[in-house]
Structures are given as structure tokens and as C-alpha cells.
Amino acid sequence: MLAPKSRLRLAAAALLLATAAGCSDLDETPAQGLSRTDLVADLASQLTGAAGRTYEATYQLSGGETATIAQTQKPSRSAYVYPGGKLLVTADATTECRTAAKPVTCTMTTPATPTSPPPPAVFRGADATGMVTPATVLTLLNRAVLDTDVEVDQHDTTIAGRHATCLDLKGVDGAAARDFGTCITNEGVLGSFSGVLNQTRVEVAMTHYADKVADDVFELPRAAKLIDRRAP
Known about the structure:
- By secondary structure, the protein is an alpha+beta fold.
- Helix content is 24%, strand content 36%.
- Strands 7-8-9-10-11-1-2-3-4-5-6-12 form a twelve-stranded mixed sheet.
- The protein is globular and about 50 Å long.
- The N and C termini lie far apart (98 Å).
């Protein structure tokens, strides 16, 4: 038979173990699901991460037109080819070409830098033709992050053979598109977009993706008239 002091020590030890087990149960309580803000912020971060990737993607637009987005890292440059226009962002200049004009004209402005990216205005030409750019989608997602009342539905899909995470958002206050859906691939590349952007219905879906980029996508259109507006 145990002495009274021994029984007391065992009882205390049992109480300590029970208390520790109770604390462990609390610590292991499953974490709550991501909030709506977290879902949108994560997708925005995923899209931002593609800035350091080399790729070329082709998109199907509403009405049967196509567009291309391409970028490389060495050298750092990006190209947006869309119906009636072409935008080149390089270390030398930000060049917007109007390929539907006669003659074709290309306007060169001050080059972008890591601390001074191209202003949203330079992407309006592409957006106006139905090719929504990653920069525009990122602006919409960042606006949605600030709206605590936005409705968010998430699902996964496969686009052009790439796994993608998709969000459908409704009621984004202050955004150019209050209701829209977008899918971003695991690589952080824009997979699709659908919604009313600036009072125009936009439908964009990636149809081809490659980790290599053809050099000619960064070339200026032949016989283009150059207008140099870069700061001296």
C-alpha cells in the first residue's frame, strides 16, 4: 500500500497530466478557414509573384480575337499584343504601338523601373480591346481586399493544361468591375477573366502557355513611325 504522501504525489501528477492534455486539445483545435479577405489577398499575391517568371501566354478574347502576354527576366521586359495594338515595357522605354493606324505609330515614353512601374493608363489600350491585363486584374483584387462586404466564391480548375485557383467576386465597391471572376494559375499567370469592365463585357481565357518566349514578340512593328517622348 502506498504511503499518504506517495498517493498525494500520484494524484498531483495525474492532475498535471490531465491539465496538460486539456491544453494540448485546445492547441490542436483546427484553425478556422481562410477569410474572404485572405482568399483575395492570396490570389493577388500569387498574381504578383509571376513578375519574376519568364513565360508566353496566348488568350482567346470575346468575338474570336486573340492576344498575347510575354515576359522575360534576362533582359527584363514584357510585351502585350492585342487587337489593334502592342505594348512593350523594356529598360529603354515603355512603347505603345497602334497597329491598326495607317501608318502604324509607336510612342515611346520614360521606361519603367522597379520603384516606378508603368502607370495604369498605358494598359488602357489593351483593356479597351477586350484584353484585360494582369495589372488591371491586380488593381481589382487589391480593391476587393479593402472591401469587407464583398462576396467571394472559390473553386479550382484547369486552364490550358495548368492548374488554377479561381475566385468569383460580387459587389466590389469602388472598382472598375463590381462583379467579376478570375483564375490565376499555380505559376501566378492570369488564366482567365470575366466581368463587366468599364461598362464593357470582357471574357478572356488562356489557350496556350509556354516557359519560352519567341524574340520577335518584343520587336516593333515593321515600318512603324516612332514618336519619342522620353525625358531627355
